[in-house]
Design a protein that fits this description.
Elements lengths: L6 H24 L5 H24 L4 H27 L7 H22 L3
């Protein structure tokens, strides 16, 4: 089945690629002594949400709720993983609330997806 050529599919595939690449880098870095716990968490969050973004991109979700939820999940995961990654590399907390804000956006996205499922509205 060919990929739908629309803005949503392309956006989700970009998120999937960024999260997937970042997740692999974080997982590889976690195998070396240092901040294994944080880097492992970054890898886990990034890679699991990369597959979510990929699935939404390939299915070209229709409906406002599914698209809002998917974008929130992917953007929040990028924000969360990116903020923690920068903190590990730069060894500073530039914006201390950036990672928690990203996590809250991810949770909100998953809640929107659940609402879409419960209400049957997409």
């Amino acid at each position: 089945m060919p990929l739908q050529d629309n803005w949503f599919s392309r956006l989700m595939l970009v998120f999937a690629g960024v999260l997937g690449a970042g997740g692999i880098v974080a997982a590889a870095a976690a195998s070396h002594p240092g901040n294994e716990r944080i880097l492992g968490a970054i890898g886990l969050i990034a890679l699991t949400h990369a597959t979510t973004a990929l699935a939404f991109g390939l299915m070209s979700a229709t409906g406002r709720l599914l698209r809002i939820g998917a974008i929130a999940i992917a953007a929040g995961a990028c924000l969360f993983s990116g903020a923690l990654g920068v903190q590990q590399v730069v060894v500073t907390t530039l914006l201390p609330m950036l990672a928690p804000a990203g996590a809250m956006v991810v949770v909100a996205g998953w809640i929107v997806i659940a609402i879409a499922g419960v209400t049957g509205r997409r």
